[in-house]
Amino acid sequence: MKSFSLLGSTGSVGKQALDVVRAHSADFSVEGLACYSHIELLKKQIAEFSPQVVAVYDEQKAEELSSQVDIDVLSGMSGLVEIAQLESSDTLLNSLIGSIGIVPTVEAIKAKKNIALANKETLVSAGEIVMRLAQKNSVQIMPIDSEHSAVFQCLNGERREDIHKIVLTCSGGPFREQRDLSTVTKEQALKHPSWNMGKKITIDSATLMNKGLEVIEAKMLFGVDYDDIDVVIHPQSTVHSLVEFKDKSVMAHMGPADMRIPIQYALSYPSRFAHAASSLDLSSIGSLHFSSPDLDRFPCLTYAYDAGKQGGSLPCVMNAANEVAVNKFLNDEIQFLDIARFIKEKMENHTLIKNPELDELLDIDKRIKNE
Ligand code: MN3
Q1: How many A from CA of 145 to the centre of ligand 1?
Q2: CA of 222 to the centre of ligand 1 (A)
Q3: What tens digit of pLDDT does each residue of 128-142 get?
Q4: Rounded to two decimals, what is the model's pTM?
Q5: Among 66, 103, 263, 363, which lies 20 to 30 A Cα-Cα from 162?
């Protein structure tokens, strides 16, 4: 039996993680649940999964829920941290959205919990600190992101020094074929062609910032140089990523585009559990296509490589600026193309800190979000 706590239980990955538990109820126990504010759904999850304790980030919503349930309802960042460190769970599944996930991940690692990580912003903003801490505490960080789960699986039994390069696949998002992006609407941007995901990551996929974040995530998880991480557009989302070794052998990971598969693997590892998804049917897919990303139309990918290569505090700045810009776009305050402009401006105006402490990164993140 694997026991875990789940941060972000009412979001897209969180709900799919609970699907996995439903399908394998004898193998998993859910010790703690936490969400941002969606207490109606959390209440149902409490009834179904009987966690020991829950947390709601929004204080008012936490109070509201507290009067309706029999278990302890924690709140705020300290509530998330308490769930992340629960004595009775050996793993934290963090599927919070954005840099709010950094502190709970760090505190869980200090409490020697293994991490199943869907919150990629943690590794983008504070990757070096988080990876160093994980190593020091002998904690495993299991990627849930489908590309990184794919790379992780391609590397099973391989030696890091034998990697020549990592190739991350990218669906290209809804605007892969669209020349003029100046008139793109929110509704169009929210229609992802192959994956069913939350709003923030769907917009990130439309700008290709999602792939940019994933390049940095791959660098942190697998320790290869940025020049050895390539991105290839692959609209079918059938190959989830590839690793080329120094003998030029290439391992590719394929499977149905169903997030429950990498979520389940992160929780069942090193075992594999059965999954009810229909099998990959290559004859019905017919052909697979690959092409290079268009960096003129999707500059966010370039910004991410730049931020990653310069390192220090810059990836944190880029990530915070992106979170702000995506929010503004979702609130109809800016246009689609303004997202990239906004990020570029924040990056250019930043004075780089080479080896920032966690507190400095958290301050930068907060400052950009409050500007
Ligand atoms: Mn991904």
Answers
A1: 5
A2: 15
A3: 999 999 999 999 999
A4: 0.96
A5: 263
